[in-house]
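Dear colleague,

As promised, here are the two records you asked about, laid out in our usual form so they can be pasted straight into your sheet.

NAME FIELD: protein one
SEQUENCE, THEN STRUCTURE:
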Amino acid sequence: MFKGYVFEGFTLNDRMKKKVEGKIVVLDYKTYVESGNFNISQVDELKKINEYDREYKQNIVNKLVKKKIACIFYTDTSPEFESYLTEKGITGIVVYKREDLDGICKALNLMATSDINNIYETEGKIKYVKPKRIYIDGENETLIINGPTSQTLDEIERAVMDVVSLLKHEIDMVVGAGAIEIELAAHLGEVAKNVGGKEQLAINGFAEAIESIPLIIAENSGLDAIQVLTALKAIHQNDKDQGVDMVKGISDARGRGIFDPVLVKIHAISSATDVSTLILKTDKLLKGEE
């Protein structure tokens, strides 16, 4: 966890300051003249276009200097523009993602400048510690995750966002790692004993389906799934918090801090039941001609 806002960015010029304290601006527009289709018949015409582009860049930098800006954030790259910034002692940081501009503005409590004649500025501290990583001091907090591959990072980010989404709401939790499913299946088994006929078969079938969850967890952990499931059923007669452990096979899920939201469990069971019921109601299949 880092106190402040962290994002990916870089400077094109190594002579720029890597630690800045002063006025900051977020530019939300192009720092160069966008090119179009030109029919150029003389060299002088091309020179005029290039000269206009240089004046455009210099005009932006001059107005930043007039406002005594120490650092700017923007999304496009232009070595010529960066050289003008360096000459005036302004640090220019190119932001990789457009959405990071919104994060920077939120961290600095600042509006992005979309018109150079109407500059929005604020005081702040910027630190460029590692290549491609920029730190902004502020009240925000940033969680930095690491992983060997982009796929691993995507999975970690998804898991973190799931947890954050849950923590935003006050919800009931149950013990995870397959422990709750073992208890549900056991409870359904007791209910089935007091029900006769086909209903008993349906209830037992439902319990068996629920038991597939800890079974799959054990299989994905590389364990002997049948052995783990049998052991869990026996242990749960005395300790209902025991769940699947990929290292030990079985351990205290509550002690390890493994919990599942009650709403997620209810939704999963309800949805699976609805789909199963829909399939069972299907009395005829029509096969199209090949």
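NAME FIELD: protein two
SEQUENCE, THEN STRUCTURE:
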Amino acid sequence: MFPSIPTPYDLVLAEVIEEFKAKQVKAILLAGSAASGKLRPMVSDLDVLVIDDGPWAIRHELHSGIELHVTSGSEGAWRNAWQREVSSDMGANLSLMTGSVSLFDPEAVGRDLRAEAVALYAAGPKLGPQWIEGRRRWLTTVADDLKDASPDDQPYICALLVFLAVPSAFSLKGCWQPRHKEAMSLLAQANPSFHQAVNAALRTHSAESYASLIREVEALLQPHGGWFRIPA
């Protein structure tokens, strides 16, 4: 069913649907906030997913003041993109397809592909040893820098450690990295002590709060090999 969305979003979407129908694509789906009912007029963008016979392609345009994002590709191209995401912690295209609604899907190609995406997204990322080692290296290096830096440099390094550690708190638990605007609220639910340490370090910039943050990062890494150290 065609979603109920306000003007001029509906007009832009109608143009896009006609454009791709003329190209005889297999399916057109609406994703993002417009599909979930959380669209904010003249603030939200418009995400359209297209299944055709072409290579993977992403198109960004401005229509009537609205940012239009069109992601297209064959069924194989979509699956390849998802497999790349499964081996990382960022399932952006999986998430878009999972929450999409059909606009044009005469042979149920979109429906079937969406079902695959739903199953993959529910299973979570499959991070390999190399990915985990890389994250351990980054976090260890930045945590060491925070301890050794001058007071003038510590606030910046603290912010960098938080930027790396917050998504790691999800991915190392087998969860997808959330959008930045949702990360802290979700972290508060998933790991309250980590959330508290992050907030304290960013707000107070004290030696005590930095030490607490580093301890929380260490606890996060402990099940995965702990701090990265080169054997003597």
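A couple of things worth noting about protein two: DSSP finds ten helices and five strands in the chain. The beta strands are 27-31, 46-51, 57-63, 66-73, 101-104.

Best,
R.
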